[in-house]
Design brief:
The structure holds two protein chains of two kinds. By secondary structure, chain A is an all-alpha fold. Chain A contains 14 helices and four strands. In chain A, the strands form two sheets. In chain A, strands 1-4 form a two-stranded antiparallel ribbon. In chain A, strands 2-3 form a two-stranded antiparallel sheet. The mean pLDDT of chain A is 90. By secondary structure, chain B is α/β, with parallel strands linked by helices. Chain B is 35% helix and 24% strand. In chain B, the strands form five sheets. A six-stranded mixed beta sheet of chain B has the order 6-9-10-3-11-12, sandwiched between helices. In chain B, strands 18-19-20-15-21-22 form a six-stranded mixed beta sheet, sandwiched between helices. Chain B has a four-stranded antiparallel beta sheet with strand order 2-1-4-5, with helices on one face. The chains are: A mainly alpha, B alpha/beta.
Chain lengths: 315, 504
């Protein structure tokens, strides 16, 4: 009995243990890995993924899917840069980007929830369209920002930690509370667990789904704005393949693609594992082309582990 | 001879002992009934037989050989076929493809379709069923799918065939076909295991029986001759249940629910009916009579073409489910697994999902303390068998799941109308009794109850008034005192089948 309990606890924390083991091994074997500077670099490198993984977690937990976020990140960056250059106001630029992200998300959500079109297809379509908008708006060129004050957003150091990392931590806290402590979070998990039963129990399934995509769009736009600030320009071809990295991190963090199961701590660890592996490969000078192989392999492994875990509790 | 024997089988799940010391023997050429309440261990034993679970103790002996199945494949290879409550099939494939899965006849890599169709038709005719070999499984009735499953078992020459609640969604005629088939297989010397909650069926079909309670064997009947129904029920429940319905007359009040001119896709003319305070109205009809469809329209789960729902004289402000719930009209669906429970979520979540709008803070934050209190309160009140409120609901038995769904609505502050579709489908005798008790108690508090049911004894035993539907229309209404099986059936059968009604 005790052995079983121990095993189950091990199972619950397996991901964290894997991460700690990975971290420890890398600290001892990879030069420069375990240094403050590298840790900050690591955190900064996963800050965009971390933010959007929070909302992607809701999306997956409700049994949906969003491929359009990479394009939204790029479009939001371009739009923000252009609006700032036009109006001279940073606030207006950021607001316009977040609004645009919200509109894209709302369209995704409304089409999926109300017109009942498959999320994969819908967001594949918006992914293409929004990427197209980014190219059209910028004429295919990077849009530099003339107002240097904008760069502070993504490059300020507060208590030794860069601002994007703070924003990501804030997202972790806010969405962690949202998932576990609010009606919205519980409804998300219920909808993912059984949409029909949730509807009959009085949950507004359509509204819940629309909110999930809308918030996802806004956060993706936020990530895009911060990225633009960090790289001092809006790039229409930024964040290609970003959506897959975000989904990988979530799945790695134990979010079920079948819906109904998600945890913020899992997603945080998932994001950290992705970032750590990437960071270590960079430090070890592994060719970027091989990094694709490693990333894919890790994802496959995570899904396999998930599958094995589920087999035991299928009934 | 390929007898089947269970020897001191035991199975433990984390925190629960599911089976202990189960021993009995079934001879070839006999039909053996397994009886017991839900959660008594019958399904667990069947899963052990089918290789889905590995027993922790004991032995399984098939045809004189000790067998240890590690996976379903092992059991299939040993000649065991289990026809489950939830059938396993590929819904998009045709009957033919299902039967021939993995061995389609082919020449030069091309499927020989004509030969395959003829062969399939022949196999189906052999067991006496008329099914189009090219029909897709998802288009067949549950009874027909079951026949296909049985045909599959016969084709791979299964020695042991176990049927787990086969008749729970079968029509009368389909049940008869099934019975004939079971008897036929018995005469061929197969070991037949038959699980059912319907005691009439056990008496009609089984030669011998074993009764389970709480994971133990409580009785073995080598022959059912001279055994009474009451004896079996009392053994199953472990306490005396004289009348499982336990009906008592109640005082009825004003009209609580009025439905006027309700019309939708599957209804012939618009439907009108009303239910008084404290009244239980049974809706009876054959499968497809439109009862569930009507109730879905009333609740707002489906879009209606026209019609109005009034509660205590006030029309619902909108046609959404939320409007209905806010006005105190709630609905327990027929298919608990698909439409009732949220399987992966906890008992507490399933109870609180609707009523949390009363306890939430600032319209947004869940009040965990209040929700835990509500959940624990109903677990205790309705005696829901669960280790704790955090248990995922899918791990509960059918009766306990139904109690959770009822708790969900009992927790509504101002419950006025309860519509419950097939309240006791797939639920054992003891839990049935408890669910009826909840309905009576609600009625006594003035709740108007609509009970849709396909079980005549249930409708006759529980309802104050019976409304009968047939082919999308309400064909009649009977007071409890006037109702009889014959009267109800003559209203429920389509006109061509029912000469009495033409005369009446």
């Amino acid at each position: 009995m005790d052995k079983r309990k121990l095993l189950r606890h091990l199972d619950d924390y397996s991901l964290i243990l894997i991460f700690i083991a990975l971290f420890a091994v890398l600290s001892f074997t990879v030069e420069y890995f375990f240094s403050w500077q590298n840790m900050i670099g690591l955190a900064l490198s996963v800050s965009q993924i971390g933010m959007v993984a929070c909302t992607m977690m809701f999306c997956l937990a409700s049994r949906d899917f969003d491929l359009s976020i990479g394009s939204t990140v790029a479009f939001a960056g371009v739009l923000c840069a252009m609006v700032i250059n036009q109006t001279g106001s940073i606030v207006v630029g950021i607001a316009a980007s977040l609004l645009a992200g919200g509109v894209i998300g709302f369209i995704n959500g409304a089409v999926i929830a109300k017109l009942r079109i498959n999320a994969l297809i819908t967001t594949l379509a918006t992914m293409e369209m929004v990427r197209g908008l980014a190219f059209i708006a910028s004429n295919g060129q990077a849009v530099g920002v003339s107002d240097e004050a904008f760069f502070n957003l993504g490059n300020t150091i507060i208590f030794g930690i860069p601002s994007p990392v703070w924003i990501t931590i804030l997202c972790f806290v806010v969405f962690g509370v949202m998932l576990n402590k609010t009606v919205y979070g519980r409804n998300t998990l219920a909808v993912g667990g059984n949409p029909d039963a949730s509807r009959l129990a009085g949950v507004n399934v359509d509204a819940t789904r629309i909110y999930i995509f809308l918030i996802q769009g806004v956060i993706a736009a936020l990530a895009g704005v911060i990225l633009a600030s960090r790289i001092t320009s809006g790039q229409p071809n930024a964040a290609q393949g970003f959506e897959l990295n975000v989904i990988s991190a979530c799945v790695l963090g134990g979010v079920s693609l079948m819906g109904g199961r998600a945890s913020m701590s899992g997603v945080i660890v998932g994001v950290l594992i992705m970032g750590t592996v990437q960071n270590a490969m960079n430090l070890m000078n592994i060719d970027a082309f091989y990094q694709y192989l490693v990333r894919g392999g890790i994802l496959l492994l995570a899904v396999l582990i998930d599958q094995l875990k589920n087999r035991g509790q299928a009934d | 001879m390929s007898d089947l024997e269970f020897k001191a089988i035991g199975k433990v799940f984390p925190g629960v002992r599911a089976l202990s010391d189960i021993s009995f023997r079934v001879e070839a050429g006999r039909v053996h009934g397994l009886l017991g309440e839900n959660g008594a261990g019958k399904s667990t034993l069947m899963k052990i037989l089918g290789g889905e679970y590995v027993p922790d103790e004991g032995e399984l002996i098939v045809g004189g050989q000790v067998r240890r199945f590690q996976r379903s494949r092992d059991a299939i290879d040993a000649g065991i076929a289990i026809i489950h409550q939830e059938l396993q099939y590929v819904p998009e494939l045709t009957v033919m493809e299902n039967l021939l899965l993995g061995r389609l006849p082919s020449r030069f890599g091309f499927v020989q379709k004509r030969g395959a169709i003829a062969w399939t038709r022949e196999q189906l005719q052999k067991i006496g069923v008329e099914i189009d070999p090219l029909a897709r499984l998802r288009d067949l009735s549950i009874g027909q799918r079951q026949m296909v499953e049985i045909c599959k078992a016969i084709l791979r020459d299964a020695k042991v065939i176990a049927l787990d609640e086969p008749t729970s969604s079968l029509s009368h005629r389909e049940t008869e076909i099934l019975f004939r088939l079971v008897r036929e297989l018995r005469s061929q010397g197969k070991v037949m295991i038959y699980i059912s909650h319907r005691l009439e069926e056990i008496f009609a079909l089984c030669d011998s029986a074993t009764i389970f309670r709480d994971g133990r064997k409580v009785a073995d009947y080598p022959s059912l001759a001279g055994v009474t129904r009451d004896e079996l029920v009392n053994r199953m429940v472990g306490r005396e249940i004289s009348d499982i319905f336990g009906y008592r007359a109640r005082a009825l009040g004003e009209t609580r629910l009025a439905v006027r001119g309700m019309h939708g896709p599957k209804l012939a003319p618009p439907a009108d009916f009303s239910v008084r305070r404290g009244e239980i109205v049974g809706f009876f009809g054959l499968v497809g009579a439109g009862r569930s469809e009507l109730m879905q329209l009333v609740y707002g789960a489906d879009k209606r073409d026209s019609g109005e729902v009034l509660i205590d004289g006030a029309p619902l402000p909108g046609r959404h489910i939320r409007n209905a719930i806010a006005a105190g009209l709630v609905f327990c669906p027929e298919d608990r697994k698909e439409h009732g429970i949220i399987g992966c979520r906890s008992v507490a979540e399933n109870i609180n999902i609707s009523c949390r709008r009363h306890s939430r803070r600032a319209h947004f934050f869940v009040n965990d303390g209040a929700e835990a209190e509500i959940a624990d309160g109903y677990i205790k009140l309705l005696r829901i068998k669960t280790p704790n409120r955090q248990q995922p609901i899918r791990l509960l038995s059918g009766g306990n799941q139904q109690k959770v769904i009822l708790s969900r609505w009992l927790a509504e502050q101002d419950l006025r109308v309860l519509i419950i579709d097939e309240p006791t489908r797939g639920i054992d005798v003891g839990a049935k009794n408890e669910i009826y008790a909840v309905l009576y108690e609600l009625a006594a508090k003035g709740v108007a109850i609509v009970m849709v049911s396909s079980e005549l004894p249930e409708v006759l035993g529980v309802a104050d008034r019976i409304v009968v539907m047939c082919q999308g229309r309400i064909t009649g209404e009977l007071a409890r005192a006037d109702a009889s099986e014959q009267k109800i059936l003559s209203l429920a059968l389509p006109v061509s089948d029912s000469p009495q009604r033409l005369a009446a």
